[in-house]
Structures are given as C-alpha cells and as structure tokens.
Amino acid sequence: MTETTTLWRPTGPRELDLVRASGWRAWPPRLPDQPIFYPVLNEEYAVMIARDWNVPASGVGYVTRFHVDRAFAARYPIRQVGGRDILELWVPAEELDEFNRHIVGPIEVVHEFRPDGTGRPTAGP
What we know:
Blueprint: E1 4-11, H1 13-21, E2 36-37, H2 43-58, E3 61-69, H3 70-73, E4 78-80, E5 87-89, E6 91-92, H4 96-101, E7 103-113, E8 119-121
Antiparallel strand pairs: 1-3, 2-6, 3-7, 4-5, 7-8
C-alpha cells in the first residue's frame, strides 16, 4: 500500500470545472502567469483562502482535499508563506502532469463558501 500525504487546494469554479472534467483525478495546466502549482498543507489555511479570496474573486470558493504518494511529494519544497501554519507545497508548472500521475484516489470537495456567508461541508466529488 502506498503511503500518502494529504493536501488541500482552495479553488474557484473555473478550476473546479476542469478538475471535474478530469474525472476528479487531475489538476489542470497552469496559465502562463502561474509558474507554480501550490497545494497547501493544512485545511484551515485552505479554508481561509477559499473563503477570503476565492469568494470575492469568483463568487464561490471551494476547498478540495487529495492524497499524493508521500515519497514522490517529498521532492517538492514546502514553503512557509506567512505564519507558522501557512505552508504550501511548490510544484513547478512544467511538472504538474507528473504530479497528477502520483495523486492517489479522487480529488474531493470538502467545503464550499458563498458571498452571503453560507457554505457547507461536502461529502466528496
């Protein structure tokens, strides 16, 4: 059995539509101005980004959870981008296809946030 690392990714509706189109198995290629794919290492940080950034930018924010082969994920640096618990895994955009091949199981939506303050935990894709 493969040991995995759990990661979270705050996202908006466009990116989530592309994840859905992949069968909940892959993250879409980065845009030209996005050289890094950065999932986060804790759910609380992902919730903050989805609620405070994605909702104002696109009307809804989602938190996804997924698992990656631990040995493979270890090749990428963990960056502390704020407080002690504000941690991201930095994956170069050109390596995202290979990263996607090391996702174990489906990408799941675990939270949804709306501008009126409503949101709901969800039970999967």
